[in-house]
UniProtKB/TrEMBL annotation:
Entry keyword set: Lyase
Name assigned to this protein: Adenylate cyclase
Domain CYTH: 2-150
Active site: Y30 (proton acceptor)
Transmembrane parts of this sequence: none
GO molecular function, one term: adenylate cyclase activity
Enzyme Commission identifier(s): 4.6.1.1
Domain of life: Bacteria
Length: 167
């Protein structure tokens, strides 16, 4: 079974941009998901590559995840004909002390939201905390891409943007 251990953080400021080694535009849409299913199923196009991803619909640092490469033309068709609202972002790769942070700079209805993710080998694995790494939002489902597709950041209230409880 594939298990993903990932921590998510809001990003403070723009100092992280100095460390970007690669950036990739992404478009993704959800083909199935909660509340009818116990998982989300999404198609994602990353530059010239495409993937079908199945992830357990649980909030937290550790979740089941399966990902399979698919032809880009198939993914384009899935996004055009099967997906609901899309999430658009640019994923920037920033390495800090040998650890890869994937920084998602969202566009469209999620413009203004910047989230850093780091995948770890264990839930309690140590990792660097660069000054631009802000508040942890790993347990807040509203920061998951599935939620951002249906409830974009532009429609959030100030209270939602600052709340620490799961939404």
């Amino acid at each position: 079974m594939a298990i993903e251990i990932e921590r998510k953080f809001l990003v403070d400021g723009a100092a992280w941009r100095e460390g970007v080694s690669r950036s990739e535009p992404m478009r993704q849409g959800y083909l199935a998901g909660p509340p009818a299913a116990r998982c989300s199923v999404r198609a994602r196009i990353e530059g010239e590559h495409a993937f079908l991803n199945i992830k357990s619909a649980t909030a937290g640092v550790q979740r089941d995840e399966y990902e399979y490469a698919v032809p880009v033309d198939d993914a384009r068709r899935m996004l055009a004909t099967l997906a609901g609202d899309l999430v658009e972002k640019v994923r920037h790769h920033v390495v800090v002390d040998g650890h890869l942070f994937e920084i998602d700079e969202f566009g469209g209805a999620n413009t203004g939201l910047v989230v850093a993710e780091i995948e770890l080998d264990a839930v309690d694995a140590p990792f660097p905390r660069p000054p631009w790494l802000g508040r942890e939002v790993s347990h807040l489902a509203r920061y998951y891409n599935l939620h951002l597709a249906t409830h974009p950041y532009a429609r959030w209230s100030e209270a939602e943007r600052n709340a620490d409880d799961a939404a």
